[in-house]
């Protein structure tokens, strides 16, 4: 593959353009598929939530209707008269039973309406109830029921002449409308089968189902009959909390995975819980994936054909030019190429033709530059020889002074010769600490002969760091600065102290003098000059040596290695710097 690409520009352009088209198309297809599947799922969830709200509105209407009906029944004069009579009244019994029967008959969702008398009179009922589970429910929930003006029961069973029915009842006490004397209790029962019909006919997904839960998350209606009146966590373990008024949960894994939507009926805190199998989304997503794959495939075929045609059309002139240039001799003038078009390729060929003359002139210029470079190398070699000649001459003078027994001149010439030899240092920028100290001492010795009795210098260097490499010519400029600007401006003799100590991975050097010191304003200006990082510009002569050392430290060791200057007028100046310990110079 690599060899195939390297042999032809056409191959490279074809591959790159195909990749440039294929990748965006595939990415667009993937993004479109993800957006479509997300939109499908979101639409199904939104549609399901709207369906739950519609069911909730219908149940809310039924609940409100039952509660309004209960108030209507309690306030009926004949009902009050029957319950508050001092003896049984058969006529009123018959009249009230007919009233309740007509009232329940008009509402399909009402299973029965029953009024129990506190005086033990025969109960009034719209339907003949052979057995009722209501008394057991009231006994189990007596504390809650007694403290409420109205109370909705859990799901229970009634045996009537029409068969066994599961019902949920609104129970509320009946009191005398004049003196609030307890007269009995009213129960209006909702038929669970009718509620289940509402849930099934709501337009929910065919493979899904809707459950109605009470405030304690027990199933009131919907789903399989075996689930009724059981906590929803039994048929659906780990269903999770449904703490919000409405929301979405994911339940199960694999083929059994379901999306759960829930919505709360505010008046009773009942919940409608809808289950949508994830397979519904999967089936829709397969269709979306198929359409996306077909669209992307057709686009890829069209794009590939257009790319190949375009590459062939563009590279044809370049291919012809390649054939022409293949046998060019580099030592001969570059031949020109016939230009037949004015587009970018034609301009390229035209520019190529103009290069021939330009390349010839450049070849001549290169030859001239090479000659000048050799001449510069010779001059540089001569400049190197001159310093060597100087310190070799000094060595000769040194031996002549020794032969004439002029020891002081011999020692001064020897120190100056060593000073110059160290400055050259074979072109190296780094030297051991011991050599840097020797260089500084040579300088101090020469100066002590020039200015006898004006200063003394004390040196203390940690022996552990003597062989450690450091940048050369750092201490001598600092000592020179102390002598010129500190000691020599003072009437009495002074001292220069040079210290070097090893602290962990760094070496700290201090040059301290007992000279005249630096005034506060001048010290601030000096520090400003050292901190200035601009290119060029004026610099005070008094700070040239310090600035040179400071810049070399920053260049070789970084921002933490710059000079630190402290001074007090009349007492002296202290200059210090800290550099890292390097096994080998950078």
From TrEMBL:
Main subcellular location of this protein, as a coarse class: membrane
Residues forming coiled coils: 352-379
UniProt keywords, alphabetically: Cell membrane, Coiled coil, Kinase, Membrane, Phosphoprotein, Transferase, Transmembrane, Transmembrane helix
Membrane topology reported for the UniProt record: Multi-pass membrane protein
Bilayer-crossing regions: 286-311
InterPro entries referenced in this protein's UniProt entry, alphabetically: Bact_2-comp_sensor_kinase, dCache_1, HAMP_dom, HATPase_C_sf, HATPase_dom, Sig_transdc_His_kin_internal
GO cellular component terms given for this protein: plasma membrane
One Pfam assignment: HAMP
Localization annotation: Cell membrane
Full protein name: Two-component system, sensor histidine kinase YesM
UniProt organism field: Paenibacillus tianmuensis
């Amino acid at each position: 593959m690599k060899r195939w690409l390297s042999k032809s520009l056409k191959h490279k352009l074809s591959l790159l353009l195909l990749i440039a088209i294929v990748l965006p198309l595939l990415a667009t297809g993937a993004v479109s598929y993800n957006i479509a599947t997300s939109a499908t799922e979101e639409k199904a969830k939104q549609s399901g939530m709207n369906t739950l709200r519609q069911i909730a509105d219908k149940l809310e209407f039924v609940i409100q209707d039952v509660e309004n009906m209960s108030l209507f029944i309690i306030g009926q004069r004949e009902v009050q008269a029957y319950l508050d009579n001092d003896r049984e009244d058969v006529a009123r019994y018959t009249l009230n039973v007919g009233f309740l029967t007509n009232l329940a008959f008009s509402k399909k969702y009402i299973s029965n309406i029953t009024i129990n008398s506190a005086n033990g009179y025969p109960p009034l009922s719209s339907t003949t109830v052979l057995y009722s589970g209501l008394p057991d429910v009231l006994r189990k929930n007596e504390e809650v029921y007694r403290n409420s003006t109205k109370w909705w029961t859990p799901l229970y069973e009634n045996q009537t002449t029409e068969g066994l029915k599961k019902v949920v009842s609104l129970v509320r006490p009946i009191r005398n409308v004049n003196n609030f004397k307890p007269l009995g209790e009213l129960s209006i029962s909702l038929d669970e089968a009718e509620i289940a019909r509402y849930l099934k006919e709501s337009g929910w997904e065919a493979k899904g189902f809707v459950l109605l839960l009470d405030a304690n998350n027990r199933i009131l209606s919907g789903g399989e009959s075996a689930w009724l009146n059981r906590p929803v966590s039994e048929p659906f373990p780990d269903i999770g909390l449904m703490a919000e008024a409405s929301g979405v949960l994911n339940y199960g894994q694999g083929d059994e995975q379901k999306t759960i939507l829930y919505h709360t009926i505010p008046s009773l805190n009942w919940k409608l819980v809808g289950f949508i199998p994830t397979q519904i989304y999967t089936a829709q997503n397969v269709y979306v994936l198929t359409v996306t794959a077909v669209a992307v495939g057709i686009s890829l075929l069209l794009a590939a054909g257009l790319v190949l045609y375009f590459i062939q059309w563009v590279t044809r002139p370049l291919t012809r030019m390649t054939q022409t240039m293949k046998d060019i001799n580099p030592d001969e003038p570059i031949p020109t190429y016939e230009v037949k078009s004015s587009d970018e390729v034609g301009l390229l060929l035209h520019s190529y033709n103009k290069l021939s003359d330009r390349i010839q002139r450049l070849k001549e210029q290169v030859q001239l530059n090479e000659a000048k470079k050799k001449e510069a190398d010779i001059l540089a070699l001569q400049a190197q020889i001159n310093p060597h000649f100087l310190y070799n001459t000094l060595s000769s003078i040194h031996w002549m002074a020794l032969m004439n027994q002029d020891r002081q001149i011999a020692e001064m010439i020897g120190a100056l010769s060593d000073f110059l030899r160290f400055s050259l240092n074979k072109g190296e920028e780094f030297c051991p600490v011991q050599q840097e100290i020797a260089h500084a001492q040579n300088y101090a010795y020469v100066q002590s002969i020039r200015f006898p009795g004006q200063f003394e210098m004390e040196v203390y260097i940690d022996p552990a760091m003597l062989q450690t490499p450091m940048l050369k010519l750092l201490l001598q400029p600092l000592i020179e600065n102390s002598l010129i600007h500190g000691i020599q401006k003072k009437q009495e003799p002074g001292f220069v102290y040079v210290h070097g100590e090893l602290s962990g991975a760094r070496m700290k050097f201090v040059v301290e003098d007992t000279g005249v010191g630096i005034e506060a304003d001048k010290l601030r200006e000096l520090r400003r000059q050292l901190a200035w990082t601009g290119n060029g510009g004026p610099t005070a002569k008094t700070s040239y040596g310090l600035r040179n050392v400071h810049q070399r430290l920053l260049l070789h060791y970084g921002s933490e290695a710059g000079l630190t200057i402290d001074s007090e007028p009349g007492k002296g100046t202290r200059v210090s710097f800290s550099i890292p310990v390097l096994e080998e110079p950078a």
